[in-house]
Design a protein that fits this description.
Elements (H helix, E strand, L loop, with lengths): L1 H24 L6 H13 L5 H26 L7 H6 L2 H23 L5 H10 L4 H26 L3 H32 L19
Helix pairs in contact: 1-2, 1-3, 2-3, 2-7, 3-6, 3-7, 5-6, 5-7, 5-8, 7-8
Length: 212
């Protein structure tokens, strides 16, 4: 699989990077990380130019994510009736997830982007939970601006040690996800404990002031 993917990227370069990453976002069993690592290796060898490779990878990832969000959005609440979803989420948990998306949709998407194996389900259910596409795209774009360059640069500088990089890349992603979760929790606690501003004073004369 890795050899076939490498040959595809070598032959069609930018178009293949963009297309493969878009397909991976829709659930095609192709590793997003492996694609970015190989793309970085191609840039290091001079087969492709660095910045066009980076942009192809970045926008390919975003397109795949938006498509899976759109798929969930088209299904709407029916997405929660899928056997796979019902198998893992009871009706009570489904409602909690909807409420969570309603209150913390942005942060949930950020965490989902940095969490291996949860990325596609989170994006799919974000669409089903009616998270607006502009909010989804903003959260995903900011998150991908960290992950895509990081993985591609690993392929660029350490392409000759690809097996070692792949062995440790998910550990790094889990660390990033943990940092994001801790940061989100700290922000939430700060908001909860922040003293509320004093209520505005009533206008002179009170509500019972008669009109002339």
């Amino acid at each position: 699989m890795e050899h076939a993917l490498a040959q595809l990227l070598l032959k069609f370069t930018y178009l293949a990077i963009w297309g493969v990453l878009s397909a991976a976002g829709l659930g095609v069993p192709i590793s997003e990380d492996l694609t970015l690592l190989l793309a970085g290796g191609l840039a290091a060898r001079g087969v492709t130019s660095f910045w066009p490779t980076m942009l192809s990878g970045y926008f390919g990832v975003l397109l795949g994510d938006v498509l899976i969000h759109r798929w969930g959005s088209r299904l709407g609440p029916l997405a929660y009736e899928r056997k796979l979803v019902r198998r893992h989420l009871s009706p009570e948990r489904q409602q909690k997830l909807r409420d969570h998306f309603a209150r913390h949709g942005f942060l949930t998407i950020v965490v989902g982007r940095h969490t291996p194996m949860l990325r596609a389900p989170v994006f799919f259910l974000a669409g089903a939970s009616r998270v607006p596409v502009w909010k989804f795209l903003l959260a995903d774009a900011l998150s991908a601006a960290i992950t895509v360059p990081a993985v591609l640069l690993l392929g660029y500088y350490f392409g000759e040690h690809l097996d070692d990089v792949r062995r440790h890349i998910h550990q790094v992603q889990w660390v990033i996800a943990g940092v994001v979760v801790v940061g989100a929790a700290a922000w939430w606690l700060w908001r909860r404990r922040r003293p509320k501003s004093a209520a505005p004073l009533a206008p002179p004369g009170g509500e019972g002031t008669s009109r002339t």
